[in-house]
Structure formats: C-alpha cells, structure tokens
Write a structure and sequence with these properties.
Cathepsin B, Chain A, 42% helix
C-alpha cells in the first residue's frame, strides 16, 4: 500500500514537473491562452503591482530633497521627499543635498498657450477614410498600428513586415515611439514626427487637416480580462465627433471575450474625450504624426512652437508641474515632470522627481515602456538603483533590450566590465537593430 502511494505521488510530481517544463517552453502568446493561475504558475507575477519604491540604506542618511514647484504661481514648498513604508526591495540612495527646482529664463510660456488652435475654428466632426484594419498578434500593437497608419497612404504592409524591423523578437513587449517613427522615416517614403505634450485641440486640428496620428496611452483591460492589469497601448486616431464626445480610432486589439464584442471592430471605434484625458496623460501625451514629406511646412505651422524639441519639453514641464500641484498624488504626473526635466538636462532634479513618482507608486510594467528614469539615475551616479529596477523589470521576463542596455551601462560605470558586456550582448541578441547596445559593444571592443 505504501509503495502504491509513493508511486502515485512520484507520478504526480513527475507529471507536474513535466507539465511545467512544457508550458515554460511555450511562446508567451500561446501561454496567454491558458487561465491566469496557469500563467502565474509558469511565470509568476510580481508580488506588488508597483515598481520597487525608494528606500534608504543605514549609512546613507535621510533624503532631504525638498521639491519646490516651478513657479507658475509664487514658489510654495511641498513636503520633504521621504519614503513611505514598504515591503518591496529598496534603493540604495547616496547622500544628497537639498534639490530645489527653480525656473530657467526660457520657461516663460504659460500652460494655456499650449492649447492651440482654438476649438471654435474646427469642424464639429471629421474622419480620415481608407484604413485597412490589422488585428494584432501577441504583444504586437506597435507593428499592427504602424501597418494601419501606412495603409492610409497606400503603403500596404502586414504587422509582420513592420515587426521584422521594430521588434524582430516576438517576445519583445514594447516598441517605443522613437522606433515607430524611425521605421516610417527609414523604411517608407513617408515622414513621421514624434511629439509629447499633445492637446485635444491640436489633435483635432491635425485630423481635420488629414494628418493621421498614432497616440500612446495607458490601458486598464476591461471586463473579463481586467486581471491583466495596466498596460501601454497604441491607437491610430483618424477622426473625431464632438456630438459623440470622442475620437474615432483604429485599435489593433479586439478582445476575444464574448461580453466585449462591442469594444472594438474592424471599422474602428469611439474613444471618448474623457478616456483620452485619463489615459493619454499616462504617456506624457505622446503622439506620432504620419505625413507626406511635401506637407512638412504645413504640418510644422499647425504644430507651432512645439515643433522644436526645446520648446516642447519646456512646455511639457510646465504642464506636468501644474498637474502635480492639482493632483499631487498622481504618480504619472510626477513621472512626466521627471522626464521633461531630464530632457532639458536637469538630471539631479529629474532623479528626485522620479523618486517622488516611485514613492506614490508606479505600475510594475512602467519600465516596459518609458526609460527616462534610467537615464536620469545614470547621469546622477545612481547605478545601483538602475540595477535594482532593471532586475525587477527583467525578472521572469527577459524581454526588454532597454533594461539590459541600461543595466549594462550601470555595471560598466561600477567597473564590472564583463557583466556590462553580457548585458549589452543580451540586448543586441534580443534586438539587433537596437543601436545603443551595438555601439556599447563596439566601444568595449566586440
């Protein structure tokens, strides 16, 4: 009897191990067809729904970085930046002096000035026609949205054509806006302009003048798939209708759940202005305009001063600053502010602002999509922070060339050249078209 029980248990253990190995070797797009508990058995989700937050090592002293708003109004100090209690891994923070954000001479633009043109000059509705819908494959919204945008200009490509360049590895979870715009510039006869700090009036103006726009948004999966939690996503905006209070978008993601059949269709769907306000902001209102080269002067006039990077990032900083005052517990607003500061070279301030965003709590997938935090930490010598965050992002999902690259930069700065080489090689193997990793390897002599 005892032998029978032992034999039965042995069969169960061997069967479970074999099943785990079989599932573990499945591509993620196939594993996703299994129930959540099966997926989490094979690839555990993080213990927390947020990134590791900011902590202090015993000998580092207290962070004394007081974050003071850029004065749209007179300067009013906010509370001292201190970490809240957490059971997550902590960041080894070096001693810092007080950091105060002060205005620069060029930061004179008001927030209201970015809302150009006025909506009263626009038609009540408009729509660009001639789009071929592409339903995305697993984690393929970037390539599929690219293919849909190109179809407007009679450039007929599949999502697999575009993916071959922007994400040659099917497991890649993200295609950045820069990669999207770069593909259009380098692989087609069209042009693309990637901007941040978009506004609804500007978006409507572009659409009314027949400029299709790819927007990058956050997404809380609906209904039966809500357990997937927050993701980044692309939509192709091709029109709007004020009477319907929304944009007209083409969405590569059509949910399989029967109760969500009306969520999307191959003819596009409505994306409300309220949803735009909520989810576009989570990616600093990033947008990519696709256009014919002959129309560049016309497009630049419509975009206005924000056509120039320096003005765009300064205005983005003002908007983010205003939002941190209005909604001080919104981590996305602080993250946007950090990115804008980093882009104009104010890395010490950017790093402190990013800390604030992490203390409030960022989605655990945040560094799948946006990488300014890595750069600000690198420029301020916070290499161990980069390693911790890259480790958390790559754990169980080694699918992000950007995290491999920045972890390699951090190891290189710490003198661990072999680990740096390994990370640069991993990034290069994962995406041979990711130039920063190739350049880093070349500098190391490989």
């Amino acid at each position: 009897m005892r032998k029978s029980i032992i034999g039965f248990l042995l069969i169960v253990v061997v069967g479970a191990a074999g099943g785990w190995m079989l599932l573990n070797n499945l591509p993620s797009r196939q594993l996703a067809r299994f129930p959540k508990f099966v997926q989490n058995w094979v690839i555990p989700e993080p213990e927390s729904a947020t990134l590791p937050t900011v902590g202090i090592v015993a000998d580092a002293g207290a962070i004394s970085a007081e974050i003071t708003p850029i004065p749209l109004t007179p300067i009013v100090p906010t509370p001292t930046l201190l970490p809240s209690a957490t059971s997550l891994p902590t960041v080894a923070v070096t001693q810092q002096t007080a950091i105060v954000i002060t205005p620069t001479a060029t930061l004179t633009t008001s927030v209201a000035a970015t809302a150009l043109p006025t909506e009263t000059t626009l038609p009540a509705s408009t729509r660009i026609d001639g789009i071929v819908h592409h339903q995305q494959d697993w984690n393929n919204c970037g390539p599929a949205t690219l293919a849909m945008a190109l179809s407007i200009f009679d450039v007929q490509q599949t999502q697999y054509d575009t993916a071959a360049i922007v994400k040659p590895n099917a497991e890649d979870r993200n295609v950045s806006p820069e990669q999207m715009a770069g593909y259009i510039q380098d692989q087609t006869g069209l042009n693309a302009k990637m901007r941040v700090n978009g506004t609804l009036p500007l978006l409507k103006t572009l659409l009314a003048n027949d400029f299709p726009v790819i927007i990058e948004i956050g997404m809380d999966p609906p209904g039966e798939v809500a357990w997937l939690e927050w993701y980044g996503h692309y939509l192709l905006a091709v029109g709007y209708d004020d009477a319907e209070n929304g944009l007209w978008v083409y969405d590569s993601l059509i949910w399989d759940a029967a109760s969500l059949q009306d969520f999307n269709s191959t003819e596009g769907r409505r994306f409300t202005y309220d949803d735009l306000a909520t989810y576009w902001r989570q990616f600093n209102r990033t947008y990519i305009i696709v256009y014919e080269p002959a129309r560049e002067a016309e497009l630049a006039a419509l975009v206005g001063d924000s056509w120039q990077d320096s003005t765009m990032w300064q205005e983005s900083l003002l908007v983010a600053q205003a939002e941190t005052e209005t909604i001080p517990e919104d981590a996305f607003a602080w993250f946007n502010m950090g990115t804008s500061l980093m882009k104009i070279g104010r890395n010490e301030e950017a790093a402190a602002i990013y800390d604030k965003a992490r203390i409030i709590g960022l989605p655990w997938r945040m560094l799948w999509y946006q990488f300014g935090l890595y750069e600000a930490y690198y420029e301020t010598g916070r290499y161990n922070d980069i390693i911790l965050l890259a480790d958390a992002t790559l754990a169980n999902r080694p699918y992000f060339e950007e995290s491999f690259y920045w972890r390699g930069r951090a190891y290189q700065a710490l003198g661990n050249v072999e680990q740096a080489r390994s990370d640069f090689q991993a990034a290069n193997n994962f995406n041979p078209y990711f130039a920063p990793a190739s350049d880093a390897l070349a500098q190391l002599g490989q």
